[in-house]
Design a protein that fits this description.
single chain; 68 residues; alpha+beta; Alpha-Beta Plaits; 4-stranded antiparallel sheet; 2 helices
Length: 68
Amino acid sequence: MKTTIYVSNMSCMHCKMRIEQGLKQLPGISIIDISVPDKTVKIEGEIRESDAIEAIRNIGYSAELKTI
């Protein structure tokens, strides 16, 4: 499954690293692609979107599913 999550309060490389480290703790994610300028986190793997969003929120960032 491919998912894009919008993180409105991600503003720097430190934010990117914190989110990436948090998501790496979740089982089932095979690819993580984070863009600070776009404020997006793209993930691929066998994980529910809600679990990834909850993990990002637990780190302290806002997170919502990005719809096209």
